[in-house]
Write a structure and sequence with these properties.
Elements (H helix, E strand, L loop, with lengths): L2 H46 L7 H14 L8 H10 L7 H14 L7 H18 L4 H20 L2 H10 L2 E2 L7 H17 L17 H35 L3 H19 L9 H8 L7 H15 L6 H19 L3 H17 L2 H12 L4 H14 L10 E4 L6 E5 L2
Parallel strand pairs: 1-2
Antiparallel strand pairs: 2-3
């Protein structure tokens, strides 16, 4: 009989989370779906009107102005979302419209940026606000924040399994908040269902003609994974250094983003086309067909670092896919192993290296490429996670356990 009150409390808590996870999935999934279509529209418009690249500096001024208008100048993006889960600070709702508008402007005008980072910020801020609205305590608001991140990521990218786990895995590497598992799963699936209902289909790639999993191929893919770990370090270092250098030479944020826009325009003119502008899905599609140029991965790193470092908004996840895919396709062409397989494995490897999220990386592989290449994906993610060290995109991310020993270290990503 003494257990009955405890059982009832658990049932009540479970019912509460099911209800609020559905609410999060519906609300944030709807917003994420709308964001998806807005991004598709501005990307299509830029493709049809390439001259709009010349407005990139003007778009930058609008972005800085929008953040100042909403009194959001100290916003640090996804870092702030992750930090809020550790520190208990409230995420302001104004983060959502700020990043929504700024990401659209960045993509419209040809900045090299992703979209999933924006989704994490939109979902996290709205989820936290819903938690505050319903008077949740600090720990429950953390769960709502993770629900929001899962829902927005799922609606925008179409990978509900990875979206559900990524929100729990990214904050503290080595420790996951399993209390958020059911809420994040439900929110992610509901958001995905809404996105599919309205026609927001996620990315998917068909890997055909996969080579047999032999010792020789396993060795080649392992070497690729180690190299991708090094590439992920390079991407993180250049991204962080670009931001520091911009702030060092251009103290005023308006001047900084104007200068960054002009630099990106100049670099685009030197390249001769706009293949490195935008998120980079166009380059991934080329690599899936076996078409790659040796400088592609390095150019995408430079374009993305120069864009985000200047203050343009978006995300780093799709660019990391693009960087990994282009580098791996080049490796596959030179090493004599399926370029399409290498492209998929490289995408996952660099994503794992920059986010330190191996479980989410594996799930993304299954959702994007299917299960046929499973042994290759397992090897790639494992080696990339090991050889990427403690570097990461998000400086507020905590590495709780060592990658090399069973030891508690509790350090921030570099």
């Amino acid at each position: 009989m003494d257990r009955l009150p405890h059982t009832l409390r658990r049932l009540k808590s479970s019912a509460k989370w099911i209800v609020f996870a559905i609410v999060s999935g519906v609300v944030i999934g709807g917003i994420g779906t709308f964001f998806y279509f807005c991004l598709a529209a501005v990307t299509q418009f830029r493709g049809e009107h390439p001259w709009i690249l010349w407005l990139l500096p003007v778009g930058g001024v609008l972005i800085v102005g929008a953040y100042r208008l909403l009194r959001n100048e100290t916003d640090t993006g996804t870092n702030q979302v992750i930090a809020s889960i550790h520190s208990g600070e409230n995420l302001p709702l104004r983060m959502a419209p700020s990043i929504f508008f700024s990401t659209l402007v960045t993509h419209l005008c040809g900045g090299s940026a992703g979209r999933e980072g924006a989704a994490l910020q939109i979902g996290g801020s709205i989820g936290n606000t819903l938690g505050s609205l319903f008077r949740f305590d600090e720990k429950d608001r953390h769960v709502m924040t993770m629900c929001g991140m899962s829902a927005a990521f799922s609606a925008l990218f179409g990978t509900p399994m990875a979206a559900a786990i990524f929100a729990m895995e990214v904050e503290s590497v080595g420790i996951m908040y399993y209390a958020a598992l059911v809420p994040c799963v439900i929110a992610s699936l509901v958001a995905h269902g809404i996105a599919v209902y309205f026609g927001a289909t996620g990315e998917a790639f068909l890997l055909t003609g996969l080579p047999d999993f032999t010792i020789g191929n396993a060795v080649k893919i392992s070497i690729l994974a180690i190299l991708c770990g090094v590439v992920s370090i390079l991407f993180c270092v250049l991204l962080h250094q670009a931001s520091h250098l911009y702030k060092r030479f251009f103290k005023n944020p308006y001047v900084r983003i104007l200068a960054g826009g002009c630099i990106v325009i100049a670099l685009t003119l030197l390249v001769g086309d706009q293949r490195y502008n935008g998120a980079g899905m166009n380059l991934i599609e080329e690599c899936m067909e076996g078409h790659v140029r040796p400088e592609m991965f390095l150019m995408k790193i430079i374009f993305t670092a120069l864009t985000l470092g200047a203050g343009y908004k978006g995300g780093e996840i799709v660019p990391s896919f693009c960087i990994g895919g282009t580098f791996a396709c080049l490796f596959g062409t030179l090493a004599g192993i399926s370029p399409a397989l290498c492209t998929g494995a490289g995408m996952a490897a660099v994503f794992c290296g920059v986010t330190n999220c191996p479980i989410s990386s594996l799930l993304i592989c299954f959702e994007l490429f299917g299960y046929e290449g499973m042994p290759y994906f397992l090897l790639t993610i494992a080696f990339s996670y090991l050889f990427s060290g403690y570097f990461g995109l998000y400086s507020t991310q905590k590495i709780m356990y060592s990658k090399y020993k069973t030891r508690f270290i509790d350090r921030k990503a570099e």
